[in-house]
Amino acid sequence: MWRLLALRPGALAREEAFQGLAAPEAFRPLESPWEARRADPRPWPEPLYFVDGKEREEALLAQGERVALLGSVAAGALVHQGGRMTLLSPVVRRVGVGLSEPLQVGELLYEPVEAEGTDYPSLRAGLQKVREDLEKRVAQGLSGGLLVVDGPVRFPRPGGALLGYIKTHWVRYLPEEEEALLHALRPGERTPAFQVSREEQALASWYVRLPLAPEGLRPPQAGLLRVETPLKGPYLELADLSLSLFPALASHPVKDPRAPQNLTPIGALERELARRMGSQEVVDRLLRRHLGGG
Amino acid sequence: MERIGVVLGRREATPLEFWVGVEGEGLLRLDDLVVVKGFHPRLGEVLYFGMVDHVAKLHEGEAYDTDTFLAVEGQIPVSLAYVAHVSVTRILPEEFFPPDPGSPVYLAQGEDLERALYYDAMKNQRGSTKLPAGFLKNGEVAYLNLEFLNGVKGGHVNISGISGVAAKTSYATFLLKSLLESGVLEDAHQARVLLFNVKGEDLFFLDKPNARLQEKDRAEYARLGLPATPFQSVAFMAPPKKEGYVPDLDTRLEGVRAYHWDLVQFCQRGLLPFLFADRTAMTNLGFLLAHVTEKLKELAQGQKGPSLLVEDWPEEDLPEEVRFDQLGKVRLKTFAQLVRYVEYKLLGPETGEGEGDRRWTARQARPTLEAFVRRLRSSVENLSHLVRGDRPGNPPDPLKGEQVHVVDLAKLSPQGQMFVVGSLLKDLFERKERGQYRGRVFIVLDELNKYAPREEESPIKDILLDIAERGRSLGVILIGAQQTASEVERRVVGNAAIRVVGRLDAAEAERPEYRYLPTSFRQRALILPQGAVILHQPEIPVPLLLRFPFPAWATKREEVLEDNSAEALRREFF
């Protein structure tokens, strides 16, 4: 019998997935000279999709030595078309990473998902994987236009253009000399594109500086977004388009603590996904009632 | 049945009120009627009927007001919520348990609408008592239960509303039309109406077709089951001009009779108290008033009028124009002369500090007598054309002749208005009390705040209270109106079973007199358009917002449809 070990085991920290060795040494510029670039405003492509996912660790369970992580994952898409942003119906899954058979908790049903290991970090990685798969599934259902994903580009998109964007920068891609441009970049400008390789995938990437609202203290990286797209696509065109796209969608610090990098539509999508996962309080109560004590 | 949404679960659902989420392209407006099918395994199906009294749309999940800008710019998706609050009017069967959130909500139409508004209960042994009262917002005919208007279960109508927005008089006349011609009131042919015209001359064209009546208005009358015609049987009466004997009216001359009382009627009917509008702090005076009224009655006993004969006015004291007649009596021909005579009887001869007639003075001190005479004298100017001795009296008699009597008060002084209203109501009520007329009598009186004020006492207020409290059992129904119900005697308003509100002043709408209206209706009373009223009747727990049709009768000279047919012209010329 599964017993409740902890509720809400992890704070929800979303980090850029580990990306292997992308080091300044491997730097290969795709444009020259290395200087700030601007572009004329251009219309957004239609349809313009945004995809994001969300995971929530709900409980850690124990059965003897075995441990399982219960969580909810959700992924959804927004489409911008005809001047309106519309939510496409999101997908929500309840999974138990480390379970071998479905677990019914009151009216909640957790599907079993295999885990790589039995320790907590592996379980978390397993949950993250479910989320990534779900995002991928949602993205594959969208055809044509341009798809913008929150996070790095993890899958090819044969049917249309794809942009991924990274908000926090754990990995340095630029040699020191070129990196100086990041600090000189003004809102609405970007660096030239450079090549990035990850998991056999060749990508083009560049940094964009978002406009900052005048209030507040900012770390030097604030407002910096790294954008990437498969190298096979029309990456220069997309790089110029990104200057019309991301600054316009930058969020406001009053409304979003992760402003401006957390884009407004993505913020709204995340709220919506959180809502679809159901109230955490209600889930807590159900878990306690069915799995606590005994 | 048109499904419109579901009962919401985020907000409390109770047996008396709940919230509805409108789905898809559904449309739900204020005043719309809905029905919810509830179910409980032990009770079976329960139907909740209700009326929408609040509707709202909002963006759900938006944390900031400015998020709406983002939504408009297409930056964030929004979830639009369209919710409505429903006040339950009826539960069938009467099982007061709450509906389940998620229960389907349907628009109440046809039979459901009738059940929601208790129309199915508006009947007696002889048939339906559904009196057409206007149109609901959705265009269906609204009814009120006649039994709460004609005195069977309740009586009286009270109408509030600021003037000028065509509510009070227009609605009162529409209601009369419905009463007299819808066929719902069984003895409608016996019913009598006394309409007081207090302002302008709006009511003086009730018998003329309205030239501005359009085809769609006629269709509305047809749907109400009423003929789109003016009132058929109307008598118009106006006070005479101060000089001469022509009705004092500007816009209508033909078919209007001047009315007045003669001196003998004045005395015999005991109308003297109606000259004294304020009876506050005058107990002695009140006593004297009753006494003098009795003496005048005695004096006029057996006399035929119009002038009043008195025999005990010595020659040396007579005013110049008064002479003894051949029988040795003095013939009083004007109201002023009557006043002089009363003065003589109370204070004695003008010359010297004489004493009055002890049989008249009722042992009152001289200051009281003098105060009485002063008040009497001041009424001469206002009343002399209404109470006269030069021709036989012709006071309005609403129980004879035409069915509707319009009595003009507009040009009278406040004292004159008091006198006419008081005299007519007293006479009418006494005759009904004595059983001299079998049919029902409807009295339409605007400016109730003047005749039955909350604070002061007056003889007219007594009569109105009498009518309000006992009238319905005697078949005397008051359709009263005023701008502000808060200034009218509580018992007069409180006895009205049917309450109607037109547009209200904002401060007035907040007074306790309107607490029977739910908040949303009080707010809407401030913005009611022309031709709309809120009607409350005892059986239905929510008020109804009604629209009533454009009058089929003219309400001013310009609206009169000129009859140019050969027949009419022939009548006019020959």
TrEMBL record, chain A:
Q: Which InterPro entries does the UniProt record give?
A: NurA_domain, RNaseH-like_sf
Q: What is this protein called?
A: NurA domain-containing protein
Q: Which residues form the NurA domain?
A: 48-263
Automatic annotation (TrEMBL), chain B:
Q: Entry's InterPro entries?
A: P-loop_NTPase, T4SS_component
Q: Which domain of life is it from?
A: Bacteria
Entry protein name: AAA-like domain protein
